[in-house]
From TrEMBL:
<dbReference type="Pfam" id="PF15173">
    <property type="entry name" value="FAM180"/>
</dbReference>
<keyword id="KW-0732">Signal</keyword>
<dbReference type="InterPro" id="IPR029170">
    <property type="entry name" value="FAM180"/>
</dbReference>
<protein>
    <recommendedName>
        <fullName>Protein FAM180A</fullName>
    </recommendedName>
</protein>
<feature type="signal peptide">
    <location>
        <begin position="1"/>
        <end position="19"/>
    </location>
</feature>
Amino acid sequence: MAQWWTLLTVVCLCSYCAASQHHRKALYPSAYRIKRGTYSLINPTFQHSVEDVKLLFEILLAGMQIQGDEHTLLIPDEELASLRSVEKLEVICEEVLPKRLSDIRRLMAELTQRHQPLSWQDFERTVLTLVYTTQTLARITNKHQKEMWTETLIQLFQALQKDLKPF
């Protein structure tokens, strides 16, 4: 009988460990591998205050474009683009956000398996990924590609909407 309880205890502990590791898995692993080599930019986030939220909204309204090539972030307003705080937004858009459809779909698979709210850093990155996906979808002409990106966009939106609902 003691062996039975020991076996059951080991199975329960293994299940608990596997579940806790799943929740600690980074949704945006590239946030911890910044190529620029600056320690202060490891796990970068843009929004730290209400003013940062307003600034991001202003940048988006100014027509910010996130593209998939080398210079990813384009802000048409030179004054906004020259702000020092925009550097972290550039790092996030250029080096952290997934740009390939397969990477965004991997993110979606991980988001749909989550049963807890996103951290504010992951929420910010997911919103920016939604912006990137929307802008990419607008440039695509191939019907099949457009359908796949549209499906991904809808799933991202639903994941964000689910995260905003109280548990």
